[in-house]
Structures are given as C-alpha cells and as structure tokens.
Amino acid sequence: MTEKIKVYLADDHQMLIEGMKAVIKTNEDFEVVGYSLNGMRLIEEVVKAKADILVMDINMPEKDGIEVLKELSSYETPFKVIVLSSYDDLKLVKEVIKLGARGYLTKQSVGDSIIEALIEVHNGEEYFCKIMQEKILASFSHNTQNINQVKIVPQIYLTERELVIIKLIALEYSGKMISEKLFISTNTVETHRKNLLKKLNLKSSIGLAKYAIKNNLIHF
Amino acid sequence: MTEKIKVYLADDHQMLIEGMKAVIKTNEDFEVVGYSLNGMRLIEEVVKAKADILVMDINMPEKDGIEVLKELSSYETPFKVIVLSSYDDLKLVKEVIKLGARGYLTKQSVGDSIIEALIEVHNGEEYFCKIMQEKILASFSHNTQNINQVKIVPQIYLTERELVIIKLIALEYSGKMISEKLFISTNTVETHRKNLLKKLNLKSSIGLAKYAIKNNLIHF
DNA sequence: AATCATATCACTAAAATTAGTGATTTTTCA
DNA sequence: TGAAAAATCACTAATTTTAGTGATATGATT
Hints:
Arc Repressor Mutant, subunit A; six-stranded parallel sheet; 6 strands; DNA-binding; NreC/VraR/RcsB-like_REC (chains A, B); Sig_transdc_resp-reg_C-effctor (chains A, B)
C-alpha cells in the first residue's frame, strides 16, 4: 500500500493520547508518529515528525492551543490541524477555525469521530463533530431572531425624535443637514445630539453612529 | 389514538401536492387537511382548516411565500411553516427563517425528509434538509475566511500609517488623542485624515469609521 | 390644576474639523 | 543612486462640533 498518513497528537492527558493511538491504529490509512503532552516546541516537533495532521487539545500547559494556532497562522505550515476541546463553545470554534484549524472535536465525541475527522481533513474538507454541527445549525437560526419584532428596542429608551436624529447622524448627515431635513434649527439638533451622548454615555458622534449600527437602527 | 397532526400544503405544482399527500399518508401521525395552488387567501384557508403545519412553496403565483411569511410575522398565528423551494440559496433560507419559517426543504429533498421535517417542526424544533445543513456548515467555515491572512486588504490600498489612523478614528479617538498616541503633530493626523477621506471618497469621519467596521479594520 | 416628558430654540466660548496649499524628511524599490 | 511613495509638519481661514446653561411651548398624565 501507499504511505500512511502521519498523525501527531498533542494533549496533556496521557490516557487520551493512548486512547487515540489505539483507535487510530485500527485504521490502516493512518499512523501516529508522535505526541506531546504540552504546547512548548510543539510546532518544531510536528514538523520534525513530518506529520500530515496535528490533533491538538486547546487546553495545554506551557503554551495553549490558541497560541500555537496563532503562531501557525502567521506562516505556511506543511500540516493541518484538528482541534480537540472540552468545550462546545461556538465562539471558540469560530476562533480556532479563523486561526486556521480544519476540524473541531469535543472530547466527548473523539471516540466516535476521530477517524472520520482525519479522513475529511486529509481530503481537504473541514470537520465538526456532531455536537458542534448541531450547535452551528442552531446558532444559524438563533442569529436571525428578529421574528415578529418589527422595531428593535435599544437597551436605553430613546424618544422618537432622538431615534430620527441618531439615525441621520449614523447616515453621515451633518448637524446642518439634519436641521434642514427636519425643518428645525441647528440648535435643536445639537441639543438632541447632546442628550443622546449623555443618555447613551458616549463621547462622540462616531460613538453614536456605532451605537446605531450595533442596534440595527440603520441598514449597514 | 390521539388526534392527528394537521398539515396544509401550498404549491403551484399539482403533482408535487399529490406526491406529498401520498408520502404523508404513509405516516399515521399526520393528515393532509387541505391544499392551495397559489398564495391568495392562503392564510385564511390554513386557519379555516385548523392546520398545525403549513408546508409552503416559495414560488407561487398571485402572492409568493415571502409575502405570506411577512404577513404572518406581523401577528400571531396558530400554525407553523415549513418552506419548500427549488433554490438552495443560503440567503433565502436566512430570510425565511427570519420571517418565522421553522423549516426549509429543497424540492429535491422533499421525498426523503418531509416526514422528518414535520416531526421536528411539530416538536418545536427547526429543520433543514441535508443539502441546506451542508450549506450552512460550509458557510460557517467560509465566513471565517481569514486563514493565514494576517492583514485585511481593503479594496483601496491604504498605507500602514493610514490604516493606523483610520482604526483609531473608528475607535473614537479624537485628532488630538491620535497625535498624542502616535507622537506626531495634529497637523499630520489631519493630513492623513484628509488623504483618507479623499482616497476612500468619504465625506466625514463617521464615514471613515463605518468603512473601518465594514472592512474589519477594527473589532466591532 | 399641577407635573412630567418631549421637543423646540438661544447664547456663549472653547475646541475640533474641514479645506487648500506647500514643504521637508524618510523609506522603498527599481 | 535616483525617483517615487510615504510620512511628516505648518499656516490660514471658514465651518462645525462640543459643552454648558437656560428658556419656552405643547401634550399627556395624574
């Protein structure tokens, strides 16, 4: 047969390493070429071992997985990374994917899906374990939560007029333009602006604009 | 047994209606209580039929599915909606979910998953067909595409210094604060600001801030 | 009838931004 | 090494924004 695909493991739990070694041994396409119990000099070791895939825990002593990924993402590397983690936290997944990881497994699901993950990632795909797939799908729905909610209600109550003013500010209208548009004096506009700044505890009109964007007061 | 779950179908293709009726008949938990070939007076009909779930095509004559959903989302309705569509377009899914739909099936996958979708949605879950699930997962990865890309490259080339300045502006630093932070004169800061406004064809610092946000120059 | 919230406007003075022009020094790169 | 790009700074003048205080009018609420 052709060369086996080389896997390097990094996790501070020896037992998990042993477990993964055992599972990976059952598939003849892969072989474990080494492992580390911490993140120090990990990249060096992986490169030295000529591994194709690094399966790495995020929580490691000395240097954690995020740090390793950050370093990796700053230059080209000859291997791909699958991240292991105890946490099924969406933000963390997003973070590690952004930093270049190709797969994410929670530790509960390692047993079921490590081989599948290795295959997918080796084929250039990305892989998320079942739990994370479900989470991702769920977040996709929940991100679009404006159901039946016509108006977005900001945390702090703004009056109708203030809403109009802050929107125009965010739309890059100057004070004068606003006053002309609304047929009021610039003094009034300024007063509203001041009240907005105070109410929202912001320092500048740029802050107001950002507030408007964050709270979906304007289309961005 | 207890009452069956009532399903109402809306699709301008009679054959698809017949197909769905046949498939749904195989499951004794559900029954089809009516159907429409267009969107006119659809809501009225569904309510009259006391349906629990509406399975609705997006492309319908007279009044399309989006319109129906918009109307539905403006008040409470006693039934849930699963959307059928020929298109596997993510934006469309997002749109219909935002408008209150609980499930999304492409027409290719109706046969395989309509029952599954009905069960899930009836249990208060959301349901996406296989194809869409894959699309959603893929988009999740691709949205975080900055892999190995340390610097974000805006459409228009900004110099290092200009990038620093525009970021600080977007972070609500005043000209003076910037000058103090960077140990340069306010004149210089103003010059950079002017150059940025001209380069990016923007009218105000709020425009600069929005540009910085849009182009991921700052964390927002 | 009195009160409160909202919206309106005024005045002043300081600070900042905008607009335009011009110039010097550093860095980069062919 | 020489030209181009980038970064730096200055000066002027008009305009705008910020900051603070105070005042009037209107409508809703109690």
